[in-house]
Write the C-alpha cells for this entry.
Amino acid sequence: MTHTTTIHPRYQETDQMGIIHHSVYPIWYEIGRVEFCDVLGLPFHKIEEKGLRLAILSVHSQFIKSAHFGEVYQLKTNITELSKVRMKFTYDIYNSNHELIHQGYTEVAWLNSALRPVNLQKLYPDIYAIFDSSLSKIR
Amino acid sequence: MTHTTTIHPRYQETDQMGIIHHSVYPIWYEIGRVEFCDVLGLPFHKIEEKGLRLAILSVHSQFIKSAHFGEVYQLKTNITELSKVRMKFTYDIYNSNHELIHQGYTEVAWLNSALRPVNLQKLYPDIYAIFDSSLSKIR
Amino acid sequence: MTHTTTIHPRYQETDQMGIIHHSVYPIWYEIGRVEFCDVLGLPFHKIEEKGLRLAILSVHSQFIKSAHFGEVYQLKTNITELSKVRMKFTYDIYNSNHELIHQGYTEVAWLNSALRPVNLQKLYPDIYAIFDSSLSKIR
Amino acid sequence: MTHTTTIHPRYQETDQMGIIHHSVYPIWYEIGRVEFCDVLGLPFHKIEEKGLRLAILSVHSQFIKSAHFGEVYQLKTNITELSKVRMKFTYDIYNSNHELIHQGYTEVAWLNSALRPVNLQKLYPDIYAIFDSSLSKIR
C-alpha cells in the first residue's frame, strides 16, 4: 500500500534562504506515517492507548530539490520492511510537475509504555498482520 | 528579581522575510521562565516531579523591531503578578544596542498532574513563598 | 467572511504534558490567514511577489481548553479590523463537540520588501477593496 | 577540531512520549555547525553576506537513547570530509554520564545566492583553507 499526503508548506516552515528548512521533513514524514496508520484502521492515538509506543531508531533524508511556500507537494509513504520488532517507512516527495524532490526513510521499533522493546507479532498479532498486509515491495 | 537570558537566534528560527518568525517568541519566553525557576532553586522538571503542571492561560506579544539570525539578544524575565492560583511572567527583549525590540507576557495557572487547578499557596507554601519573594514591582 | 480550517494536530506539536504546546497556536493562526487570503484570490506568495510583506505587530492568545493529538479542530478566521495600514485577524478554535477551546488575534501591518510600512489603500486599492469586502462585524 | 556545544533541551522540544522529539536533532546539529564556523572566525551570517549559501544534501540520525528536558547534553561537532564543493559534518551527543546517546551527520554543498553550486576552493580559497585546517580524521 502507498499512502499519498498532500503537503501545503507552512510559512513558518520557511527559512531565510527562502526554502523549507531541512528540519521540517521529518515532521512531514510523521504526518505520512500517522495518516498511513489511520488508513489501516490503526490510528496512532488508539495504538498509544493500547500501551504501545513507536520509537525512532534512525531517520535518513536526501534532498534533491528544495521545497517552497506557495507550492503543493505529494508525499508518498510506504512500509518497506517489517519484522517482529521493527518497521521501515520510506517517503518520496514530488512537486506539482511530478518531479521527485526528496527521499527519506525512518526505522522504528515498537515499545511498551515503559519504553521497553516489545515483540509486536507476539503481543498484538492482529496489528502485526495488518502492517504485514500493507507491506510494499518497492524498495 | 529580573533574570536575563542571552538569546542566540537559531537559523531554523528565521523565515523567508529574513527575520525570526513571530511564533518563536513564546518559545523564548519559556526559556526565560525555565531559567527563572532554575535560579530560584525550583527547576521545572523537579516541579513536575512534585505533580505540579504549569498551564498557560494567555500569551501576549508586542513586536517593536524584528530580530535576526547572527545578532544577540537579552531576554529579561520577571514575575509581575502572583496569587494563590496564578502568576504573570513578563518579558522584555533588547538588542545589542540596548533597544527594546519586543515585549510579552504569559499568564499561567498551577495544575496537578491530572491537569486540575490547585491552590499553590495551600499545597506548597514553601514554593509559593519563593515565588512571592521574587515578585517584581516594575509593571 | 469567515474561513474555516480543519486542524489535525501533529504528533510533533505535542509536549510532555500530553497536550499541544502553546507556541503552536500562532502557527495555526498563520495557516488560517494564509487560507483566508487564498479564498479571497490573494495567495500570500503572490502578495509577496508584488513586493508586499505582512508584519506582525502583536499576537494574543487565550487558552480555554487544551488541544490533543488524535482530535480534530475547526479554526475560524475573520478579519475584524481594517485600515489603510493595518488589519486585525481573529481566530476561534472549536473541538469536535463544538466547544470553543481557544481564541486569538493578530494585528498586522503592510510593509514593502524593504520592510517599510506602506499605505495599502493607496498602493494597491484593488487588494484593499477585496479585504474590505471580507471584513467581519462580529467582534 | 572538535567543537562542543552544551545543549539544554527546551520544554517545547518534548513530545507526549516525554522525550525530545526526533525532529529536533537536525536543529541541534545546525547549532553545532553554526558555532563551529563561529569558532573558525567564519560566522554564518558573514558567510551569507559574501553571497554563499549552505545547501543540505542529506541528513542522517541514529537514536541510541532518548533525550529529556531537565538534562544537559554535550554535542560534539566535527568536519570529517571536505572537497571543493562539499563538506560532511558529524555529530555525537553525550549525556551527563558521558554515554553516547545519538550520532548524526549532514552532507552540505556550497551555493551562491542564486542557489547554484560553487567551487569553494576556487571562489574563496581562504575560507576553504580554514575549513581544511579544521578537518578531523576521526571517522
In short: Chain A has a mean pLDDT of 95. The first strand of chain A starts at residue 3 and ends at 7. Residues 25-39 of chain A form the longest helix (15 residues). Chain A has one domain: 3-133.
